[in-house]
UniProtKB/TrEMBL annotation, chain B:
It comes from the Bacteria. The keyword Kinase does not apply. GO terms for cellular component: plasma membrane. The chain crosses the membrane at residues 9-27, 84-103, 110-127, 169-188, 218-235, 255-280, 292-311. PANTHER family: HIGH-AFFINITY BRANCHED-CHAIN AMINO ACID TRANSPORT PROTEIN BRAE, HIGH-AFFINITY BRANCHED-CHAIN AMINO ACID TRANSPORT SYSTEM PERMEASE. Keywords: Cell membrane, Membrane, Transmembrane, Transmembrane helix. This is Branched-chain amino acid ABC transporter permease. It is found in: Cell membrane. It holds the Pfam family BPD_transp_2. The lineage of its organism: Bacteria, Pseudomonadati, Pseudomonadota, Alphaproteobacteria, Rhodobacterales.
């Protein structure tokens, strides 16, 4: 019986009159890989922000490994061992790749250990040639990769990624897929994405959001062939 | 961080020993002492602003607080050792409380600026209004706008009659600055220093990594205040009087100007800026052709417009391009971002 | 009865002078997201412009209400073209540059007018209410302020320029996309903001002795009033000026003027801590 690592009960987020996230009940098992999909404005990102503490939900509860974390600050959630990557690359531009990743490792390890871990991750992500380069001088794909390194180096048991493949080249996406698969050996992974190509290549179970609520949750093949989902995506009546 | 720590320490010690030996041949030690003290004050803001991204409009508050703490404690105790320690500790505690209030409230740039500015004003107004005889702390009268004169100045620890003044006092201040500089160097190389840089660059990311950003900013803010407090106590000893002007907005403005002119994101910049501009002001004070304030203001405007990185980084990159060092120049972006924290 | 009337006038005066002091800064900040730290010096120059004009034989009201705003507005225009223009979008840099400018103006004023206090007498005599003497000029300031707020509202609400201005306030990029040159809008805004500062300085000049460093007394109050007011221009200005003015006066009457000032500042700190986006960021969202 696998442990539930992330669970939400009736998660609701309203902005003024708009309900961006509507009574979402969500459950994620240990080492599970889950994709959240849905058209623009479906509430995926709002859900993501509520879970990561970037927003405080209007109603409902968030649990991580049984611990209630509703209303916690992002840093408190991250300190539990949760790796978070936001939609736009969130990195330290004036610091080098190594410094960026080292800082993430240092939060949970001593100096020597952090160095070793950072070096290992840099090698694994093939960032060795740019390890001393400032992030501000890197291309978008490289920055995304560094941010994934920041997440991975802390050895999290739950990873939350918001559109990790956005704006990446095909080659970068392949590498990203590989890294994510590697992550799932240790951690449960939630990916918010709307690139169907990428989802097909990576996903098993998919949760579909529509108008703030969960439309369906099933294996990726079922979801892709479901008339409702197709209607939502293509805007046709089912 | 290209050089190792021990190389850094060695260079610092050699250069500062040379300066301490040579400078008194050019400028009187009385003037030099205050330049050194201003250098320390500049460094205190340079640390929190340049490396932590905290723009404090009220660094003078901690300077003044340090000076007043020293003066009041010295009158009550009659010996300088404990007052010196208090002058560091009291501003640090004050800053820790103020910082915790601001940073846990997630206040950023402009609001931070307003609050630090306002707190400085409150202190200024309050101290200015304490002329009456009812404002007494122990044996010390606060004296309002007249300030507090006649307190025990620095003495050899344990011997209240062995005053340290004149040339020896200059050496004490200079050595204190070197020690503070080395401590700052060490701090910036430590994990804490690198976290501060990370926070300056991207608070959200540091938070998502699991760092309690507010706590670290509060600590850095308090460290900056402690250094400013020490500078204040040294200044009190130099001037042998403390007045509310130490808290004034003009004083705060000057500290910010020192940092801009010298160069943010460097350790040396704020010290050079402080000493250089204070000396310039001293020289200008001896002529009456052009108003002093006008020149200070003009310098600030010109630097913001044309040399926003400040002197020290500009000279450093100039030197490295002349001598063809392979070291990569710090990008313009780095310095600009440093400003905005 | 008489006392309460006097207190009422004093309260209104405190609020009005805060609005007056902050209006120029609020316009510039609200429209351009530029904090003009030379605002106090613009007021100082408004004062000197009035005194100089009166010295040349101009009617005091013409000097205050016409000449001072125009002179300071033009100075503002020059400043905008030479300095501020290059720093748009860099909030901290503009703060620093305008702080530098404020020092430049203090220096210039010192060189031109000397470091001594000059002043003009208040052109309106005081009168008595019962046992109390009321400063008639305070009424004038209250009326000027009310007219000013109404005028600002009318311009923003009722004119084409006001509409463009409101659009720019909300989304400067969209205003630009619709074909309004932000460069020109900013230039005009800075002119208006400076003119308002000049007007405020001129109107307040008879109440204070003018020295080149007079601006310092205003900038902090204006700064906190505007920031605490938040994003809505007029509602923010009036609401925060009212809160601070009342706090100031209550403590001034109850204890002393110095405590009144300190209470105002403490109120500002508490307010900003409680409402980091200002009063109107919290309560009057989307209003002007």
């Amino acid at each position: 019986m696998a442990e539930t690592v992330l669970e939400t009960h009736g998660l609701t987020m309203r902005f003024g009159g708009v309900t961006a996230s509507d009574n979402v009940n969500f459950k994620l098992k240990e080492r599970e890989l889950r994709c959240l999909i849905g058209p623009n404005g479906a509430g995926k990102s709002t859900f993501f922000k509520c879970v990561t503490g970037l927003l405080i939900p209007t109603e409902g509860h968030v649990y991580m490994r049984g611990q209630e974390v509703t209303g916690w600050q992002p840093h408190q959630i991250a300190a539990l061992g949760v790796g978070i990557k936001t939609q736009t690359p969130n990195v330290m531009d004036a610091l080098s790749v190594h410094e960026n990743i080292w800082l993430a490792a240092r939060r949970f390890n001593n100096v020597a250990e952090s160095r070793a871990r950072a070096d290992a991750i840099i090698e694994r992500l093939a960032l060795g040639s740019i390890a001393r380069t400032e992030l501000g001088q890197l291309a978008h794909g490289e920055r995304q990769r560094v941010e994934l390194g920041i997440v991975a180096v802390a050895d999290p048991w739950l990873v939350l990624l918001d559109e990790p493949a956005a704006g990446m080249s095909a080659q970068d996406v392949d590498r990203m897929t590989e890294i994510i698969h590697e992550l799932t050996r240790r951690a449960a992974v939630v990916i918010v994405e709307h690139d169907m190509q990428f989802i097909r290549s990576i996903a098993e179970t998919v949760t579909v959001f529509h108008q703030g609520a969960v439309l369906m949750e099933d294996h990726v093949d079922q979801v892709m062939s479901d008339p409702h989902v197709r209607a939502v995506y293509l805007g046709k009546k089912a | 961080m290209k050089r190792t720590m021990s190389q850094d320490v060695l260079i610092t010690l050699v250069v500062s020993a040379l300066l301490i030996w040579l400078m008194p041949l050019l400028i009187s030690t009385y003037t030099l002492t205050v330049l050194v003290i201003y250098g320390m004050l500049g460094l205190s803001l340079g640390l929190i602003w340049g490396f932590g991204g905290i723009l404090c409009f009220g660094q003078a508050a901690f300077f003044g607080l340090g000076a007043y703490t020293y003066a009041i404690a010295a009158i009550n105790i009659g010996e300088s050792t404990v007052p010196m320690i208090l002058a560091v500790v009291v501003p640090a505690i004050f800053a820790a409380l103020l910082g915790a209030m601001m940073f846990y409230g997630r206040l950023t740039d402009v609001y931070l600026g307003v609050i630090t500015l306002v707190v400085t004003l409150i202190l200024f107004k309050f101290v200015n209004s304490t002329a009456g005889p009812q404002y007494v702390i122990g044996k010390a009268r606060l004296g309002g706008f007249n300030g507090i004169p006649g307190f025990q100045t620095l003495n050899v620890p344990g011997d209240p009659n062995a005053y340290i003044w004149g040339d020896p006092y200059f050496y004490v201040c200079a050595v204190a600055l070197v020690i503070v500089y080395l401590l700052v160097t060490w701090l910036l190389r430590s994990s804490f220093g690198r976290m501060a840089l990370g926070i300056r660059e991207n608070e959200v990311r540091m938070g998502l990594m699991g760092y309690d950003v507010a706590a670290r900013k509060t600590v850095l803010f308090a460290i900056g205040a402690a250094i400013a407090g020490l500078a204040g106590a040294l200044f009190a000893n130099w001037g042998e009087i403390v007045t509310p002007n130490l808290f004034s907005l003009g004083q705060s403005a000057e500290i910010i100007i020192w940092c801009i002119v010298g160069g943010l994101g460097t350790r040396l910049g704020p010290i050079v800026g402080a000493a250089g501009l204070a000396y310039l002001k001293f020289m200008l004070g001896q002529q009456s052709m052009i108003d002093n304030t006008l020149i200070t203001g003009l310098i600030l405007v010109l630097f913001v417009l044309f040399l926003p990185r400040g002197l020290v980084p500009a000279i450093a990159s100039l030197l490295s391009s002349i001598f063809g060092h392979t070291r990569r120049k710090p990008s313009n972006r780095r310095m600009r971002r440093a400003r905005h924290g | 009865m008489d006392l309460s009337f006097v207190i009422l006038v004093e309260m209104l005066y405190a609020v009005a002078s805060l609005v007056l002091i902050s209006a120029g800064l609020a316009v510039v900040f609200g429209m351009m997201k530029v904090i003009n730290l030379a605002h106090g010096e613009f007021m100082m120059m408004g004062g000197y412009a009035t005194i100089t004009a009166v010295g040349l034989g101009v009617n005091v009201f013409v000097a205050m209400l016409v000449i001072a705003p125009i002179v300071v507005g033009l100075i503002g225009l020059i400043v905008e073209r030479l300095v501020i223009r290059h720093l748009y979008g860099r909030l901290v840099d503009t703060m620093l540059a305008t702080w530098g400018l404020s020092l430049v103006f203090i220096g210039l004023a010192t060189m031109i007018f000397g470091n001594t206090t000059t002043g003009i007498s208040t052109p309106i005599p005081g009168f008595a209410v019962g046992d109390y003497q009321i400063n008639g000029y305070n009424f004038f300031i209250i009326i000027v302020t009310i007219l000013l707020v109404i005028a600002m509202y009318a311009v923003l609400r009722g004119t084409r320029a006001g509409l463009i201005a409101r659009g720019t306030m909300q989304r400067s990029d969209m205003a630009a996309a619709l074909g309004y040159s932000p460069d020109r809008i900013y230039m005009m805004t800075f002119f208006c903001g400076s003119a308002l500062s000049g007007l405020a300085g001129a109107v307040l000049a008879p109440l204070v002795g003018l020295v080149p460093t007079s601006g310092g007394a205003y900038i902090a109050k204006a700064f906190i009033t505007v920031i605490a007011g938040g994003p809505s221009l007029i509602a923010g200005l009036v609401s925060s000026a009212t809160s601070f003015g009342l706090v100031n006066q209550i403590f001034t009457f109850a204890i002393s003027p110095v405590i009144g000032e300190v209470a105002l500042l403490i109120a500002a700190v508490v307010l900003l801590r409680a409402m980091p986006s200002g009063i109107t960021g919290r309560f009057f969202k989307g209003k002007m």
